[in-house]
Specification:
Helices cover 48% and strands 15% of the residues. The protein is of the alpha/beta class. 45% of the residues are buried.
Amino acid sequence: MKRIALLGSTGSIGQNTLAVIRRHQPRFRVAALNAHPNSALLCRQTREFSPEMICVTDEASGVALKARIGRSPRLFIGTAGLTEICKNKLVDMVVMAVSGAEALLPVISALDNHKQIALANKEALVMAGKLIMDLARKNNTAIIPIDSEQSAIWQCLEGQERNALRRIFLTASGGPFRDFTGEQLKKISVSQALSHPRWKMGRKITVDSATLMNKGLEVLEAMSLFGLKAHEVEVVVHPESIIHSMVEFIDGVVMAQLSIADMRIPIQYALTYPKRLKTSLGGLDLVKIKSLNFTAPDVKKFACLALAYRAAHDGGTAPCVLNAANEVCVEEFLNGNLTFNGIPAVVGKVLSRNRAVAEPSLSDIMHADSWARAEARKVIQR
């Protein structure tokens, strides 16, 4: 039985992870659950799965939750609580479904304590990719990607030699605005940006998908996960979302991973690796699909993707600054204080003002993150 700490249990990834665990009990036991905003759902999850540990935003929320549950799992609070859970001897694997920069310290804690990580969070690797991957290698600890694109690449590379790889293709649906004109993009509302045509996700990642920043973060994530340079990662728009990514080898062969668009598939494989188990989902009907289409992304209309490549070339603390500025901008967009096109405009200004540290320590990364957030707020206020 594998004991799972599910951090971010009430989001889309978290709920799909519990669906996989529910289907394949008793292979798994939920040792810990964590959520911040959705206490009602966390309460229901805790009653169903009876974890030994729960983590919430603040102590008052935890006391109220325990009163509603009617039992006494051990209570942890905030980021410090997540970090403590990742050390706990009751945990074999950490499913990191927490969004944003908050995942960084818990990821490091899990690796320090030799916990296998099923990773759905992009931001930790964007902020501190070299540091995290060096730590994983040092401790001989596996990081298994959950995101469909990174899982596809990981599966295509199984059994292959690194020096046989030429490049990877990251596929993107293109988001809800892929056919919009530049003029139309100036008028995007919050409700429009939160309507993704393919995936049901959290608010922040849905906006990132609309700006293509999400794909930019995936470029940076893939570079760390698979030891790639920026020019070895190419983004292609694939509206059908059937091919989840592709790998090209030096002999010209391209390997692709195809499946229906359902996150339970990569989640299940991350939890059961190296075994493959049956799912309750249907397979592909290639005759019905008929055709698969690919186009190049328009980086002039969707400047966030170009900014991510710029941060990749700059290296050092630049990816961390990109991520921090973007998190602030998305928050301000959702609050009505910034336009849709204002997101790349502000991120670009902050990135231009960054004094990059080439080989950053964890302290350098945390300082760059704080500086970029403050700088982004200054730019927005002006």
